[in-house]
Write a structure and sequence with these properties.
The protein has 318 residues and is α/β, with parallel strands linked by helices. Helix content is 49%, strand content 12%. Strand 6 (251-256), helix 12 (267-274) and strand 7 (279-283) form a beta-alpha-beta unit.
Amino acid sequence: MSQAQTTHSAGAMAASRALFARVSRKSQVIVPLNASAADPNAQGPAIYCVHSIAGAGGTDFLALSRHLGASTRLFGVQAPPKRMEEPDFGGDVPALAAVYAEAIAEAQPSGPIVLAGWSAGAAIALEIAHSLRASGREIALLAAVDGGPEIPGGLSGWDPRYWLAVVANLPTWFVDSRAMDKGFPATTLIRLARSMVSRVRSLAARRKPEVAPRLEGFISLDRYPAAQRQFMSRLYDAILVYRPRTWDGPVVVYEARIGPALALPQYLERWRSVAPQAKRTVLEGNHLTIMREPRVANLARDLEARIALAEAQRTPAG
């Protein structure tokens, strides 16, 4: 990379951080993440990206914003910090999606809408799509990034082939996790062990497992304030019980090549239970690194290509 390119990249990164810092204080639902999104006169395609379990739609997609073309507008859909303090906010996927759909419709009053969601945000994005379509809006593309509704699809957890696939994934997961986390394996394995012990105790006592230990199976809660942890717990339970309606619009399912330690996600198979036309693209990395430098560039390239194709199909020839 040339010195000029390096300087431009550093400047764009600083601008993105400053932009997010400025708008996030307003507790908005829609957060512009790049310069074109912040420009009210920009006319390029817009992508609305729904937050993961933590609710931080701004920070989740900042790395993605650095790899999109200058004309592509990227917006994060976040849970406003003030609303996280409400005891019911996030406890029902359709209700949460209705709030977000209204905000998106206000931000973009006309034209087709592109929705994306990472992790828990994928299921929320699906319900947002339903809500927007019910009000007469067109959904040009729905992109699910390593996430989906918690519905049956693929191999059962009782099927030996399920666990063979999990075991086959473990060496790659171990190597990748060690490269990504300086505290690995101690911190990660301790967290996984606590989660498993809590689940076993709950099963032995014939009670529903507590949400926090289940979340600890894949994310550390220590760095989040109390109100956000409570929101995450409500949302996690809401995702588990959410049963989506069928969807017949374009869907692309992005799956990380490296799966988690103790589960087989099978996102495409789950998506095809509600959207048989869904297509899959496999991304190098794991659930986290596909959204981080340098691997997030692969997601940006594929997503922009699909949006360009969707626009070309809508535009009459000549």
